[in-house]
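For the sake of transparency, this paper describes our internal protein records without simplification. Such a record has a labelled line for the sequence and another for the backbone structure tokens. Nothing more is needed to write down the fold, since each code stands for a local backbone conformation. For reference, a complete record is included directly beneath this paragraph.
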Amino acid sequence: MTDIGLFKELVDFCNSNKEKIETKFDRKVEFSDFNEVCFQEMYLNIKDEPNPIAPKILKERVKGLTECYRFVIPKYLNKRNNFIKGLDIQLGQWYEKAFQFFLESKGIIVQKKGYPFPDFIVGSDDKPKAYYELKYIEAPFLSANNMVKNTFPYSTSRYDYECSLTLDTGKKLQRQREKIENDLSDDNIPCFYIWWFDAPHLKGIFYMNSKEVFEYWDNVGTLHVREEREGDKIATQVKGKIYPPLLKMKSISELLKELR
């Protein structure tokens, strides 16, 4: 099945199994005809280009994208939950469980693992097949073209649609790297970083294997240190970020093949 077909299947699965996933939240997962065109024009058709395509060009290719940038995406510049870490974690856990249950519906058995391993193990402790970490992202990094000065692996500016899939460059990522490179590499057990991108325009599952993520990190260092937020006063949070390039990632159809 195609990436679009599989993601639609994931969306339908989430909306049909909300009670099984989590009763505390009423999440409606969406993927409209507009999102499908965005996926085609903002990912599939340009992922082999040497550099990202500027949004002003993409607006000419995607009907409704101009209005999306003008009226919908700017809301992500406003405060939402004061960026309180606990609320973000709860939201992320909903999507972790949803994806776990979806994989199980495909015959891929997944268990929670946890630090310093990546969060999930495919298979079992005695017979691990793979590990993965899932990140849920709904807020586009609107100022990426101004904030991200090191544009590696590109030679031109980066843009919100391909520069929003973030990882914190703190102790957790460093310890995960040590665990993966020191304890898992000899057994050739693959490890993946997966992003569930749920922006108003581009939606999908995108991923990189850990080796590619760490090579990217080595090339760019910490790309951006965000400003302090109100939530930082409640609990210490990592502010250093990297933004692996979405257009260099694979999507859900290839991920399912690898996890099997």
